[in-house]
Amino acid sequence: MNPFRFKNRVPQHAPELARELLGCGHVVRGFGATPGAIPRSGELGTSGQGEPVVSIDRFVPDVLVAYDALSPAAARAARCASKLNVPLFLVEEALPDRGRRLKRVVRWLGERLWGSYVRRRASRVIALDAAARAQAEEEGFDPERIHVLPGGVDLGHYRPNLTSPLPTQHGIRGRILLHLGRIDHDRGLEVLVEAFAHTVGRREGWTLVLAGTGPAAHHLRAQASRLGIGARLCWLRTPREEELPGLLAASTLLVCPSLAEDVSGWRVRRALACGLPVLAGRGSRSEEFVEHDGCGLLIDEQDVAAWEEALTIATGSPERRRRWGLAARERAEERYAWPTIAKYFEALMLGELRQTGPDQEPTDPAIRPIT
């Protein structure tokens, strides 16, 4: 089978999926990505600069895969799928693009200029979480053709018992409550800082680490100083990709108080792979990845009392955290390993090629949708 894929805004999904499909014996080519970003196989010639030159017609793909259902790439893929008479798979991540005018304009244009055409031509929509499914339904895609299949995690790269130089470099000792992501005003961080101050924030041995940047940083510093825990709050720049596995594995708990729709679950999946328990708000996009009291806690309300209770429970029992960490890694291995994700993706593509009904699912119990 020859999958053909277009540029995407979920940068790790395409190369990891391509790598797994290549390992299964498929021929994969990437179009629209930077050279080398997506693994390729069976190239047909090279340019003067050594870059592969492969036309769509020469490649003759069996399946087209494009990212972001209303993007120009999706429109191009729909035209190619129609011309070549092959199935079109769209991969959708829910990104409301809050405050990003250009992306809102592109989405608006996509809906009006080619949205209806892409909807008619799409064979399947692969939603990366429940929010992405809801977005695809709002965009008018047939719910029967939408499948929730999260992105995977490289379990060899993200694993327990790694170390990180970052805590030592910043003078952090003891246990770490890690928040990873943008420091914004609507992400529940004020609640988290206050709950931390009322629980373990005044004790030695616990540090709240905020790894990221954003407009709320100055306000949170002032709040921490007012509450008398300025020394227990540590600020890190946004970690580089190669720094993330060690930082996650070296932390004690990942805290995700945000209920904002633009906070996706990739951090949570990677944390689980590192054996890191997660405290997340119930109703957030992180909720579907966390089993309550299985690999962390889901907090019912985004208020100080609820987070105080959660922090007290989570920080008060090393044995509970150990159990959560083991279950987190097990959950990642069962649900988010790239070979598992790729097998289900492959089964959907093969099923479409065999012209099976949209409701038919793979029968292998190890290859199942995550809903």
Task: Write structural notes for this entry.
The protein has 371 residues and is of the alpha/beta class. It folds into 2 domains: 167 residues, Rossmann fold (3-Layer(aba) Sandwich), CATH 3.40.50; 169 residues, Rossmann fold (3-Layer(aba) Sandwich), CATH 3.40.50. The chain is built from 14 helices and 12 strands. Helix 11 packs across helix 13. The longest helix is centred in the last third of the chain and has 18 residues. The C terminus is likely disordered.
How is the secondary structure organized here?
Layout: E1 3-5, H1 13-23, E2 29-30, H2 56-59, E3 63-67, H3 72-84, E4 88-92, H4 101-113, H5 115-121, E5 124-127, H6 130-138, E6 146-148, H7 166-169, E7 175-180, H8 189-198, E8 206-211, H9 217-226, E9 233-236, H10 244-250, E10 253-256, H11 266-273, E11 278-281, E12 296-299, H12 304-315, H13 318-335, H14 338-353
Parallel strand pairs: 1-2, 1-3, 3-4, 4-5, 5-6, 7-8, 7-10, 8-9, 10-11, 11-12
